[in-house]
Design brief:
408 residues, mainly beta, Methylamine Dehydrogenase, Chain H, globular
């Protein structure tokens, strides 16, 4: 087993209009929650950072915004349970003013009927995956739909208890989606027209709310994701199954993207008392190195930073030694929290319970709390994640969206 203090996840999204500091997809532009080009203030005032603006959107959602070239793109669902529709909204990042919105299609309406998908931006286009399994490409300039693929019709998509919840992974002109068809659990589409590049005929598992990662394990580039019954590694070039690891909790809910924590080691975690673990991959052989059942991360995300694993679970934020599974420390002040890590070792957390937002200074062996406030705007659950771009933090709660000055 080889472990390293820093790793490069090879997800490169080249686009002509991108600026340093843009946030182009779910979990940040590198899809890892590490926003290293953002240096933020290391202390907040007593009542939190200065709010720049706040708006009430038409559409409800759990998804996070993305920030590209001075624009905010965010999804929201409208209508009633019998006719739920998905929209993408475009706002001016400077003042929150509306620029355009467009409907991208029918959406999930049975339960928790709010937008799940965070758009992925690439080359002037936006890509989303609806709760009903439709993959849609739109123009970022005006929201015009370019193409759509109904994966239920084309690939036998089978929906799941709370609807498909996935944010697109894109690399090398390829978009990955997970319809969970009996002969197409995972599918790769051409980003120019939605045509098929490959599909996994060897798997017959449903999706499990997991947005996949592109990881290089022992020199082999692979799409790594968690499906209904397994975490799997697929050849990024053709979708062939490289390895699979039995992985299921009682609801088959695995929303956390797998995270590379060594040359051949991957961290996975899910809720419902399943816990967290590190698995070691050697070719097609996979074994568990350690497991911590108390850290059952429901869907708050995971990051690997300074040789430590940060993961929310069991009512606190954990900092693990990846080699042994030892809890180096826990952040008890952060309760069921989503987060991102900034370039000067600052972390911003956003709690599900009560909407508490914390500023932390985190290191490999300790942390300090540097500020706190609560989100009182918006509606329903605090299930979005903090986004930081160009010195501004964006926080969404349901229909509410606000911007805060956090730059140094």
């Amino acid at each position: 087993m080889v472990l390293r203090a820093s790793l490069l996840v090879s997800v490169v999204l080249a686009a002509g209009t991108l600026q340093a500091g843009d946030w182009t997809q779910w979990r940040g532009s590198n899809r890892d929650l590490l926003i290293m080009d953002e240096i933020v203030a290391e202390m907040w005032p007593e009542d939190g950072p200065r709010q720049l603006w706040q708006i009430e959107m038409e559409g409800d959602g759990y998804s996070e915004p993305i920030i590209v070239d001075g624009r905010i793109y965010i999804t929201g669902n409208v209508g009633d349970k019998k006719d739920r529709r998905g929209k993408i909204y475009c706002f001016n990042a400077q003042d929150g003013s509306a620029l355009w919105n467009t409907e991208y299609g029918a959406e999930w309406g049975k339960n928790f009927e709010r937008a799940r998908t965070t758009p992925t931006y690439l080359g002037g286009k936006l890509y989303v995956i609806s709760g009903l399994g439709e993959v849609v490409a739109l123009s970022a300039s005006d929201g015009k739909v370019i193409w759509r693929v109904d994966t239920a019709q084309r690939y036998g998509m089978r929906n799941i208890t709370w609807g498909i919840a996935e944010s697109p992974l894109i690399y090398d002109g390829t978009l990955i989606c997970q319809p969970g068809g009996e002969k197409a659990s995972v599918v790769a589409l051409d980003i120019t027209d939605g045509d098929l590049i490959w599909k996994t005929t060897e798997l017959s598992e449903k999706s499990a709310y997991c947005s996949p990662a592109l990881l290089t394990i022992n020199g082999k580039r692979q799409v790594v994701t968690s499906l209904e019954d397994h975490t799997v590694g697929l050849d990024a070039a053709n979708g062939g199954v490289l390895w699979k690891y039995a992985y299921r909790n009682r609801h088959a809910v695995h929303p956390n993207t797998p995270v590379l924590v060594g040359q051949d080691c991957v961290f996975i975690s899910s809720g419902y008392k399943y816990g967290a673990e590190v698995i070691e991959i050697k070719g097609s052989d996979v074994k568990q190195l350690w497991k911590e059942k108390a850290s059952d991360n429901h869907f708050q995300g995971v990051a690997f930073y300074k040789g430590r694993i940060f993961s929310s679970g069991g009512g606190k934020l954990w900092c693990f030694d990846p080699s042994s599974g030892r809890a180096v420390y826990t952040v008890d002040e952060a309760n069921k929290t989503s987060f991102c890590i900034l370039g000067n070792s600052m972390m911003i957390t956003y709690d599900e319970k009560g909407g508490k937002v914390l500023l932390l200074k985190v290191d490999k062996n300790s942390y300090t709390v540097r500020g706190e406030f609560r989100i009182t705007y918006g509606n329903d659950q605090h299930w979005s994640s903090p986004v930081v771009a160009h010195g501004v933090m964006y926080l969404r709660r349901g229909r509410g969206l606000a911007a805060f000055a956090v730059g140094k």
